[in-house]
Amino acid sequence: MAVVRWSKEKMIVLLTEEDVQIRFAARAVNSGALDMPVLFLNGAYDQTCETVTSRLAEPMRRDCRSLDRGDRAVRALDGAGETGRSERCLTTWLAAKFPELWTT
Q1: Are the beta carbons of 56 and 62 closer than 8 angstroms?
Q2: Are 67 and 33 in contact (CB under 8 A)?
């Protein structure tokens, strides 16, 4: 909801973040759906952003028309030293999805 403030000379409309997002979404191509290939890495043990069994990722699943998911056994220290799993998943996906661009 926009907040309206009045001064003697003019009306000032302050938009909330939600208003800005709604206006941006109204201009989105394909109603915001993505047609390009998308890879999403599920974090199996991510306590903050669990996407394997929760409904959190449902909008992404609905709006990404060419969605592939990679499941990783992510631990809290994944970013601090176990990035190899993510890299292997991404590399495998890129080679399978775009074989004509992948040279060995």
Answers
A1: no
A2: no
